[in-house]
Amino acid sequence: MNQEEKLQLTEKAVQKEKILLKRLKEYETVIVAFSGGVDSTYLADCANEVLNNNALIIIADSPSLPRSELSEAVHMANSRKWNLEIIKTDEYKNSEYLANLGNRCFHCKNSLFKSIKKLNKYKESVILYGAVEDDKQDERPGEKAANNHGALAPLQDANLYKSEIRILSEIRNLPTASKASFACLGSRFPTGTAINLKKLNQVERAEEELRKRGFHQFRVRHHNEICRIEIEPNEFEKLILEREEIIKTFKDLGYKFITLDLYGYQTGSSA
Q1: Rounded percentage of the chain residues whose pLDDT exceeds 90
Q2: Which of 79, 112, 126, 180 lies deepest, with the highest CB count within 10 Å?
Q3: What is the pLDDT of residue 269?
Q4: Whether the predicted pLDDT of 270 surpasses 70
């Protein structure tokens, strides 16, 4: 993208943001489902700008969210003086979620929205979540859960795409502007592979090792005693150079075979 194209994209994104902010002003109080990712962070910041303390920002303390991600998200929210509340969700107690038969995301999001609705003092608030235009291209079971609970997607209403949200986040000095894509730890398991707290923790600790070593975009895909590491191809050499230490850590975590996926990082490639 050349400079002129970037300027045009920025101008278009700014106009869409004006539509979003105008829409948010129509609400008296809102609850924003916040995960620490690019889209929900941007939405939360916009809601806070317009509604201040009348925008309650909710983040779920769930076993499927790494501790490092939760810590970073809370730190950022506090630094921007958002009205943040941490809640507990219980999807890991749901046998259908743990069975991981293709509707895991539905049960996860359903648990989130049910927990939000239990916040009695905010019962009249509109629930917002960070779905964007790009999400319409994929099947999103979580969207069904959102619809069931009447949650709204104002970023989609403003026709905002993730590329535009990154630009607008940079303008707002949000640290997520260049943040790598992230999905919950449950996405590391192939459909049909049962999930439990021990496995989620195993994957979390394995990915934390890659994070500490400075890898940018990565996934540790769980195939029982085999783990499949996905990183960007331009970081293959770095992993090979550090493989002995990585192998030791992963074996200590319980993996018998540690593999590198030569396709590199791919969204949604657990199956």
Answers
A1: 85
A2: 112
A3: 58
A4: no
The contacts found for 243-249 with CB under 8 angstroms, 24 or more apart, are 246/209, 246/210, 246/213, 249/206, 249/209
Are 198 and 229 spatial neighbours (Cβ–Cβ below 8 Å)?
no
| pLDDT tens-digit series, residues 113-167 | 999 998 867 778 999 999 999 888 777 778 899 999 999 999 999 999 999 999 9
Q: What angle do CA 144, 148, 151 make, to 5 degrees?
A: 90
Do 188 and 221 meet the contact criterion of CB atoms below 8 Å apart?
Answer: yes
- What domains appear along the chain, each with residue ranges and CATH number? 3-178 (3.40.50.620), 185-260 (no CATH)
Nearest to 228 by CA among 237, 239, 219: 219
The pLDDT of residue 239 is 98
Among candidate residues 230, 173, 192, the one with its CA nearest the CA of residue 49 = 173
Q: What is the DSSP string of 177-234?
A: GGPPP---GGGGS-TTS---HHHHHHHHHHHHHHHHTT-SSEEEEEETTEEEEEE-GG
Please state the pTM of the whole predicted model.
Answer: 0.92
Q: Which residue has 């809640």 as its token pair?
A: 87
d(CA 98, CA 259): 25
Tokens 């219980």 map to which residue?
A: 90
The 10 Å Cβ neighbour count of residue 197 is 11
Number of other CB atoms surrounding residue 4 within 10 Å: 8
